[in-house]
Write a structure and sequence with these properties.
The complex is a heterodimer of chains A (about 300) and B (about 290). Chain A has about 300 residues and is of the alpha/beta class. Chain A is built from eleven helices and eleven strands. Chain A has helices spanning about 15-25, 45-50, 95-100, 125-130, 170-175, 195-200, 215-230, 250-255, 270-275, 280-285, 290-305, and strands at about 1-5, 35-40, 75-85, 105-110, 115, 135-150, 155-160, 185-190, 205-210, 235-245, 260-265. A nine-stranded mixed sheet of chain A has the order 3-6-7-2-8-1-9-10-11, sandwiched between helices. In chain A, strands 4-5 form a two-stranded antiparallel ribbon. In chain A, strand 9, helix 7 (about 215-230) and strand 10 (about 235-245) form a beta-alpha-beta unit. In chain A, helix 1 (about 15-25) crosses helix 11 and helix 5 runs parallel beside helix 6 (about 195-200). Chain B has helices at about 15-25, 45, 75-80, 105-110, 145-165, 180-185, 200-215, 230-245, 255-265, 275-290; strands at about 5-10, 30-35, 50-65, 85, 95, 115-130, 135-140, 170-175, 190-195, 220-225, 245-250. Chain B is built from ten helices and eleven strands. Chain B has about 290 residues and is α/β, with parallel strands linked by helices. The chains are: A alpha/beta (about 300), B alpha/beta (about 290). The interface between A and B is large, with 61 and 66 residues. Bound molecules: iron/sulfur cluster (SF4) (4 copies).
């Protein structure tokens, strides 16, 4: 079963919720310890920060110079590539067919020169199909890395987009291909927003949890995100983070729309401080673990109900 | 000289938009405000723009299949690399617009010539008036891509407006992340203000954003928001700035006033008693200096 954690914008506590759910799930006999956390927020994957077994030791004394404050030992790392055309010059007759079919301006042909701009290529394979000279061969562009490890009893998978790579969706699709389709509980940390990468992440998931906060920004972003989820027809519920601002619209809207508010995480400076230090929520607030367990149990039950 | 100030943050939730709203309030009237946070724009919730003109954002194309011409040969679904072709029980094909990338390869190879390409209406953009001055902003429809192109469009419109109205400053609320839209927003900026917070991911993102500003040779300054949440991380960020020759021009303690202001639809500096106002005013003076005195 796949549960995606999403939000209309970053910083609402998406990762906090995803890690809390995964850490609660491994304690439950229902999941027979088969729990995976998949970080699809490939531009800023940071679930690993909260999964590290020595996370409490993360302090400002760390050397900031390292490319990533990564305290996780990855067991497996795989480079992910996109297919792009590579010209075999001696076969090319500069007919320009490949340039004409390419909708993304990734190929130019001028006189006796052909140039490929791999970073513009969407890997549609159109150019390969139209080249009658067989002058194009499969080259590749690095999209990023998929890393795996096992930590705190959880299989942790993350994608990390190469800095400078503009397209997140192909890497997200690659992560999703690698997710198990058996009875493993997969918690997916989705990218923020409502654009393509979010759609790619959410497609094919069984349930979505939208994380928001009771502020005008949170409310606005929640409505946008709910629009996307409705288009995809995925059942979903809402978790309200930093509750207690006194702003009521989010609650009223959920009631009116018949959307379940699964949990309210009260605003608490201690929680914000724990987040800053890379400490998981349920370690900072052990009293919340029971709530996360119940959320999971309820979702599983309602799914079984749906499938029955 | 006209100047462009871009506000970035890496990941969301650092208070970038709230701080942009405060700058929009503090900066002298001679400016244009541009909201380039096109994926999840929130600035309009504070600035309450009155829309003067509404325009479509058309970008890219999308395939459409004429049902009556389709012979159910299956060619298009074999060709499409993006799983955008769906077939019904009789094998008749249709296009899932959300998944279609507009590569047009199916249209080219459909033996029945049943597929045509159509321009895609991906969103809208607006010219508006606010209590702090004219504003250019937009709305990207859910599930659309090309947000980089929309950023460029909004920025170009803002520059155009600044020229027409002879404004001295373009204040840009930038997109989150470090991807294509951010790169699109950096081009043409005179100064980037990076709003960050003392967290692991705050530092991580700061490094990535500074990597970009350095690459594009645009000067940057840092505003550390919620600076008292984690003393060690705050120090690490300060040290990072010093070592990289980047000025930290403000450190703002965690303050409930930001949320209160948002709930009231105001910039935090518009609140009567907000402790952060003075810090933000000083930050604006410094930014003003960096932008205009040379
Ligand atoms: S289609 Fe083939 S032969 Fe023609 S220009 Fe392209 S690579 Fe060269
Ligand atoms: S694979 Fe598609 S996008 Fe890439 S160069 Fe060829 S035609 Fe263009
Ligand atoms: S290729 Fe053309 S005729 Fe064949 S299934 Fe697709 S739309 Fe129909
Ligand atoms: S235009 Fe390209 S992406 Fe769209 S349906 Fe056709 S082959 Fe697929």
């Amino acid at each position: 079963m796949k549960i995606a954690i999403a939000s209309g914008k970053g910083g609402t506590g998406k990762t906090t919720v995803a890690t809390a759910l995964a850490l609660s799930a491994v304690q439950l006999p229902e999941f027979k310890k088969r729990v995976m956390l998949a970080d699809c927020d490939v531009e800023e994957p940071n679930a690993h920060i909260f999964m590290s077994e020595e996370s409490e030791e993360i302090t400002g004394q760390e050397q900031y110079g390292s490319p990533s404050p990564n305290h996780i030992q990855w067991h497996e790392q795989e480079d992910i590539f996109a297919t792009v055309p590579e010209v075999i010059e001696e076969r090319c007759n500069y007919c320009g067919e490949c340039r004409d079919i390419c909708q993304f301006n990734a190929i130019t042909v001028l006189g006796q020169t052909i140039l490929v701009f791999p970073e513009m290529c969407h890997s549609c394979l159109g150019c390969f199909r139209v080249c009658e000279q067989n002058a194009l061969q499969h080259g590749k562009r690095l999209l990023g890395q998929i890393s795996k490890t096992h930590v705190n009893g959880i299989d942790l998978v993350q994608g990390e987009l190469r800095v400078g790579e503009a397209m997140a969706s192909p890497l997200i699709k690659a992560i999703k291909k690698r997710l198990p389709n058996d009875d493993t509980l997969v918690i997916i940390d989705a990218p923020p927003g409502t654009s393509c990468p979010v759609i790619n992440t959410l497609t094919g998931t069984d349930y979505a949890i939208l994380v928001t906060e009771p502020t005008p920004f949170g409310y606005h972003d929640l409505k946008l995100c709910a629009e996307v989820i409705k288009i995809l027809s995925i059942p979903f519920g809402v978790i309200i983070n930093r509750a207690g601002s006194g702003y009521k619209e989010v609650y009223e809207w959920c009631r009116k729309e018949g959307i379940d508010v699964l949990l309210e995480i009260p605003f608490d400076r201690g929680v914000a401080e724990a987040y800053a230090a890379g400490i998981p929520l349920i370690q900072a607030r052990p009293d919340l673990q029971g709530h996360f367990s119940n959320i999971l149990k309820n979702i599983v039950q309602s799914m079984e109900h749906l499938n029955a | 000289m006209r100047k462009e100030l871009l506000i970035l943050s890496g990941k969301g939730g650092t208070g970038k938009t709230s701080i942009t709203a405060a700058l929009a309030h503090l900066a002298a009237p001679s400016k244009i405000i541009a909201d380039c946070d096109v994926d999840a724009s929130d600035l309009h919730l504070i600035l309450a723009p009155e829309i003067r003109s509404e325009n479509d954002f058309i970008s890219g194309t999308e395939a459409k299949i004429r049902r009556e011409n389709c012979t159910a040969c299956g060619e298009c679904s074999a060709i499409c690399q993006f799983d955008a072709i769906e077939t019904d029980d009789e094998g008749i094909a249709s296009v899932n617009g959300m998944a279609c990338e507009g590569c047009a390869v199916c249209a080219r190879f459909c033996p029945a010539e049943a597929i045509t390409m159509h321009p895609c209406r991906c969103g809208q953009w607006f010219l508006s008036d606010t209590r702090f001055g004219p504003m250019v902003h937009s709305h990207l429809f859910p599930g659309e891509e090309n947000s980089g192109k929309l950023v460029t469009l909004v920025k170009n419109q803002a520059t155009q407006q600044a020229e027409n109205l002879d404004k001295k400053l373009i204040l840009v609320d930038g997109p989150p992340g470090i991807g294509c839209p951010v790169i699109a927003s950096i081009s043409g900026a005179d100064l980037v203000l990076i709003v960050t917070e003392p967290t692991m991911s705050g530092l991580h993102d700061l490094e990535r954003v500074i990597g970009l500003t350095t690459h594009f040779k645009v000067p940057a300054a840092v505003c550390l928001n919620k600076c008292d949440l984690n003393g060690n991380m705050a120090k690490a960020i300060e040290r990072y700035c010093t070592d990289n020759g980047i000025e930290m021009i403000a450190a703002i303690p965690f303050d409930q006033a930001f949320t209160d202001a948002q709930v009231q639809g105001k910039a935090v500096t518009e609140l009567q008693e907000s402790g952060v106002s003075q810090t933000l005013e000083q930050m604006w003076f410094r930014l003003n200096d960096m932008l205009f005195s040379k």
